[in-house]
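User: Here's a chain of 64 residues. Predict its fold as tokens.
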Amino acid sequence: MQLQRIARVFAEGGWAPMVADGGFTHEYSAPSAGPPPWYVYEFTPEHAYAVMTKEPGGATRWTF
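Assistant: Prediction complete.
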């Protein structure tokens, strides 16, 4: 069910994958994606970092 919902979101953006073999398939995709199926992974971040590379510079960290 989760993959179906994600596929609908992609379809709203113009790329409508089909759910098969625990991932997505479609007749076309970026060549660098490799052959289907393409799998979706879920993760929960604990920290995120950002670094400013232009003046005034700086960095920050978020903890979730």
